[in-house]
Amino acid sequence: MSTPATRTGLDASALIRWYEREQRDLPWRRDDASAWHILMSEIMLQQTPVARVAPVWEEWVRRWPVPSAMAAASQADVLRAWGRLGYPRRALRLHECAGVLAERHGDVVPDDVDTLLALPGIGAYTARAVACFAYGKRVPVVDTNVRRVVARAVHGAAEPGNPSTTRDLADVEALLPRTRARAAVFSAALMELGAVVCTARKPDCASCPLPHCAWNAAGRPAHTGEPKRIQKFAGTDRQVRGKLMAVLRESHGPVERAALDLVWLTDPTQRDRALHSLLVDGLVEQTRDGLFALAGEGE
Ligand code: SF4
User: Fold this and answer.
1) Among 19, 201, 213, which residue has the most ligand 1 atoms within 8 Å of its CB, making it the best to mutate?
2) pTM for the whole thing?
């Protein structure tokens, strides 16, 4: 998969027609969603499914319609509102990003990729997703779904190779339609195809709008690289971190260590490790008198 994708492998017109007909009605795709609203959705959607994100996103848009509104909230407020979306460091980084947008960017999300990349918590994917979906820029937007569709339809492989930002961006850039407007729709369509049709476990090739798929044409060769690791949750430090955070979110202030100990009695060493990692990540604070609180609530 060292050569860039060629235009012959992916019929942009067929894909765009399908997207215009079949796209899901997602709230962040509404005409009145601002760049800030879209940025919030992109951060939330990175590791959390649409169905869990949508209600939280709606609440955030009402509560923090502009970056300065979120910047004025406390870290603890934002962590509470994040609830059970998981990977809560994303919420802290978004809060930090809101502060920078309010102070240095006139409360407006920038439209160019380099400026977006300089913001806290904004990586290669999010910067381009915002530039494309909020401002219609012609930039390659590459997430896991896009990598998978390109691997199959263009390169004839069951799964993409190891991620490489430079190679993956060049690969998708080569597929983008020339005009800005079509390129932006194409990027959204490519992601949508990977999310709903060309899925990881069970691609629905009978419903695929692409007239040619290199993987199907090659007889659907099996994946030859390392098997994909299935991320488990039960029993992991991540699960324990989630339980500890839930206690702190639901409390009205700092709590005793004993209240945290109760959530994971089976393995105190693991519990200590999880709590320590939350302190190191800045999600939890310890007060002078030894109590534990959400970030910003321990003074
Ligand atoms: S034909 Fe099947 S494998 Fe190929 S892009 Fe479409 S859904 Fe994916």
Assistant:
1) 213
2) 0.92
**Portions of the chain given CATH number 1.10.10.10:** 237-294
Distance of CA 45 from the midpoint of ligand 1 (Å): 23
pLDDT digits (tens, 9 = 90+) for 256-277: 999 999 999 999 999 999 999 9
- Ligand 1 centroid distance, CA of 10 (Å): 10
From atom 2 of ligand 1, which residue's Cα is the shortest distance away?
Answer: 205
In the CATH hierarchy, which top-level class contains the domain 27-135? mainly alpha
Rounded distance between C-alpha atoms, residue 50 and residue 65, angstroms: 20
Distance CA 280, CA 284 (A): 8
Residue 113 · residue 128 · CB < 8 Å: yes
> Top-level CATH class of 237-294?
mainly alpha
pLDDT in tens, 9-53: 699 999 999 999 999 999 999 999 999 999 999 999 998 999 999
Say how many Å lie between the CA of residue 216 and the centre of ligand 1.
Answer: 7
